[in-house]
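Chapter summary example.
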Amino acid sequence: MPNQKNIEQVAELAEKFGKAAAIYFTDYQGLDVANITELRSKFYEGSVEYRVAKNTLIKIAAEQNNLTGLDEILAGPTALAISYDEPTAPARIIKEFTKKREKPNVKGILFDGELLPGEEFKRLADLPSKPELLSMLIGLLQSPMTKLVRTLQAPLSNTVQVLQSLKDKKS
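The structure predicted for these 171 residues follows.
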């Protein structure tokens, strides 16, 4: 018979699975307390939730969200890096953190409802962030408009320059 604490944790995890843009399943074993604390603070700065949970509870919560195929990922200790806004933020944080250390290993990624292998986190870490993508889009949209405005202004400025040169000649 499941206890109340586990029932609450499953409900909480199921809710997080439903809201998350991306969930990174990591193996944190081998990190000492200082490293885990540093990693948690980096995740906190990046608006990413990092928590350890029992594999059976994770599996039940995933099944409640119609997610299957987690059996291989949920072997050994598992911590979840959950991002609600920026799905690539955990990948960038983990990549930066593993430059100096070997852990945590990414066992798998639930990215926009699709299950990806853990090795994909390096590719996701190299993707631009959402604000960077938006600024690139704005730049692409703004460029043709700027060219159009310059093209429309050119005859006017040419006319003004001709009138100015005539004025200078007469004076």
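To summarize the output: The chain has a mean pLDDT of 83.
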